């Protein structure tokens, strides 16, 4: 079931817009050429923003019911094209096909969820006395810009686009350099169900060109970014220069905290899944393992054994673990593993053996558990973005909390304990946007607010809260 899109262009105003130059789209599992991508830049971004601004004048006047119907229809057409979208996603990212199907389903769910919620999204009436009628309105910003990462292309653009369009904005998206095809295909599907031309637009190209142009464009009224903290800081500066709001979902170094009373056997599958999902290339990956001293040996031994059972291969063959996004990312992950100090690699840390001949040039790395990591070391502090977990031990609850909070990031954390009081107590102290107990959601469902503390970003995507991010409040006071 190989995807057949070999020429990927920008999609602006309901039409494909090629650029003068292209760059190669590469299969991360084989290194083979999947096709060519239009290298859009400032001109394409300017065209897309202006067309979106014209479309928004009509779109913002549509009723919540009208938008709701189109959002529901979008969800239906996404599901109708599930096989094609999953194939595109798996080829571009390298992720296992089952995970790619999940991404398609979640993308559809965003449109469905916001189709429901937008019809019940109201302003407030404020009592100010019998001679005054005061109320608030939630109004759209105008044209929203979206620069998204390569790890979950459909999920990331789905949650941004669905929220933006539901609230009466129009959108211009810049997909990641490496993974543009599913976003362009989504734009085609959105256009096909009857949205006005220009409501949702996609500009393909390189981040330093098209992405930078989108972030700096004066016609963008609201900006969202998913990616590294370093680039997110640059995006925030660009937005601050024009005094526009931003939603930033950035890096993470999320911790699984395993207490001595945890059900270890029940926890192990989730601990492994939290670091191998999407080859560990997840901002909310469970990349730190903080374990009570008296069960530390048992936990790391069982986790290492489970990691050694992980199947590795080509995404469309649906293994448990696919390749990293690129050879560059593979080299980056390997670089971290050469600087672990006195820590010990219990399993992994190598390129897998025994792969099919056509995969030998792929960006693979085995699931890796590094034990006895110093809390202040690079591998414990920085986001690796690969299937690498750094394990360390703690003596008491206070130390566990200190270790969990001991990085610049605060996206997700999980606690494993049978003590309900401890679960609530520690959850209140952990500095993270989401805290799971006896499970690991890696961002959780569509209904859960998602966003970071500290350098993991600000603002919230997902859930009803996201509607507030994409609207601005107007207060109207009428003297009676």
Automatic annotation (TrEMBL):
Pfam families named among the record's database cross-references: Aldedh
Matching PROSITE patterns: ALDEHYDE_DEHYDR_GLU
Active site (record annotation): 249
Domain Aldehyde dehydrogenase: 21-476
GO terms, molecular function: betaine-aldehyde dehydrogenase (NAD+) activity
Protein name: Aldehyde dehydrogenase (NAD+)/betaine-aldehyde dehydrogenase
Record family assignment: Belongs to the aldehyde dehydrogenase family.
Keywords from the named record: Oxidoreductase
EC number: 1.2.1.3, 1.2.1.8
InterPro entries registered for this protein in UniProt: Ald_DH/histidinol_DH (IPR016161), Ald_DH_C (IPR016163), Ald_DH_CS_GLU (IPR029510), Ald_DH_N (IPR016162), Aldehyde_DH_dom (IPR015590)
CDD domains from the UniProt entry: ALDH_AAS00426
Enzyme class: oxidoreductase
Top-level taxon: Bacteria
